[in-house]
Description:
By secondary structure, the chain is an alpha/beta fold. The protein has a single domain (7-281), classed as Alpha-Beta Complex (Spore Coat Polysaccharide Biosynthesis Protein SpsA, Chain A), CATH 3.90.550. The chain has helices spanning 59-69, 73-76, 93-103, 147-153, 166-169, 199-206, 211-219, 244-258, 265-281; strands at residues 7-12, 31-37, 53-54, 79-83, 87-88, 108-113, 130-135, 142-146, 181-191, 231-236, 241-242. The protein is 29% helix and 19% strand. Pfam families: DUF707 (PF05212).
Amino acid sequence: MSAKRENLVFVRAGKSSLHRQWFDADEYRNWDLQISTWEDDPSIAEGSDLPLSVDKGTKWDSIYRYLAANPQVMDDYRYIAFMDDDVLFEKGALNRYFDICKEEGLRVAQPSLHHDSYFCYSILLHCPHTKLRYSNFVECMAAAIHTDYLRSFMPRMAKVQSGWGMDRIWTVTMPDPCYKSAIIDEIVMLHTRPHATGVVYKAFADGGVTPKTEMDALINSYSDIPRKMLIYGAKGVHGDKLNASSAQLVNGRHLLANAWRYREPRRAAKTGAGMLLRAVTEAQYLPVAAHRLKTETL
């Protein structure tokens, strides 16, 4: 292992992985790299600070098996970021990503999405008027999780294969979820591949896994899981605090004004309009802790 660093980037990588473009070999990093692959190609390990992990499963079931077999990594690192291999970052961005998570005391976070990204959820698109936005939704694509929380969350990952649904629950299955989860606008990533494509989705189909069915079962095994993806506060670029109403107004106006720039303009415009409405109707919203139901299916 390299000299002690505070954080870990865990990337599930294939031969065409983009992670090699995230950093230069001689640059300062506050994170180690753990590469996990389904490929029979040892060269994929190039640049990894930890021994290559080979697992023929899909991303999240592989992550669960890795953590179960190597629980010491949750003692060794403050945050672990679980990355897909089809995202791009500017050099040095991941250092700042982890710094912000630490500075803000976040338990779950993700970078915002560049305007040219393929996306499913417009709420994740970059907002240049904020440093970060507090949200009850953090996607699985590049989530950073504090290892204290990861230890307690791990049992919920035990039966997950697709990962769908975890992004709906992990922001609210902690004891005090307010202001603990955020979309970080200071850090921007480019998602280069359309949603629900790639070898992992073929693996789901071959294994008889329906991601939406898995998501519905996971969500329905808890009480009080939010049905809407909401921004409920923000920090401005100079550190000023925005309440739920102001954050929704700033975010909504930006999405509407820039809808033409995105790959799916109508989706972005619809979300922006919804945010302006919720600046009034959901102005007092704050997330509450969700609890597991006795009749759980996952």
